[in-house]
Write a structure and sequence with these properties.
single chain, about 180 residues, binds ligand FNR, 6 helices, alpha/beta, globular
Length: about 180
């Protein structure tokens, strides 16, 4: 089984990309998480280009189609979804009849250096994914003050947050038809 990880941050040392990789380390044997690494190459969406999508869009489309589930980790920019992540989701949402996100199990987690852990960005990402037709896990994982909240392995240091992450992954795995994490 394959889970596609999508980080909403393009930053080299992104907390969210680290969190994604940390989440990947929790997955049971037989489930792999691959982090999509071409988000920065996706150009601005235009309906004019919809029928000849650029290579990076085609790559994301294929990666989602080849995955059993999608896990998004996103920071919050100005109380909302980072523009490049929203732009990528807009691309993937079209054509509506063939979007690979339709019916795809998806979950959203997130980290910010502020006090609220990107909760608005996570809520809006869940809303966008649901609108596109994904089957979105109804959970959030707010990692606040991310500079101090994550260990070297990318996992939350706080026990409750780590449990929340495990619960989110369990729901995602269940939705994708996989066994849950080991207790
Ligand atoms: C931020 N940041 C931020 N944090 C937050 O909690 N709420 C917000 O609205 C914003 N707004 C915002 C706008 C912009 C343009 C930037 C660059 C940053 C701070 C953000 O949480 C912090 O930079 C994170 O470290 C970004 O995540 P990555 O890149 O570490 O994954």
């Amino acid at each position: 089984m394959r889970i596609l990880g999508l980080s909403g941050s393009l930053r080299g040392d992104s907390h969210n990309t680290r969190l994604l990789r940390g989440a990947g380390g929790l997955l049971p044997a037989g489930v792999e998480l691959e982090v999509f690494d071409q988000l920065a190459a996706i150009p601005p969406y235009s309906e004019d280009d919809e029928h000849e999508p650029p290579a990076a869009v085609a790559a994301l489309r294929a990666a989602i189609a080849a995955s059993d589930a999608v896990l998004v980790a996103t920071p919050e920019y100005n109380a909302s979804i980072p523009g490049q992540l929203k732009n990528a989701l807009d691309w993937i949402s079209r054509p509506v009849a063939t979007t690979p996100l339709r019916g795809k199990p998806a979950a959203v987690i997130g980290a910010s250096t502020g006090l609220f852990g990107a909760v608005w960005a996570q809520a809006e990402t869940r809303k966008v994914l649901s609108t596109i037709g994904a089957r979105v896990v109804d959970r959030e994982l707010p990692i606040a003050q991310a500079d101090e909240a994550l260990g070297a392995d990318g996992l939350p240091l706080d026990t409750d947050a780590l449990q929340q992450l495990s619960a989110t992954l369990d729901e995602l795995l269940e939705s994708a038809g996989a066994m849950p994490l080991a207790a």
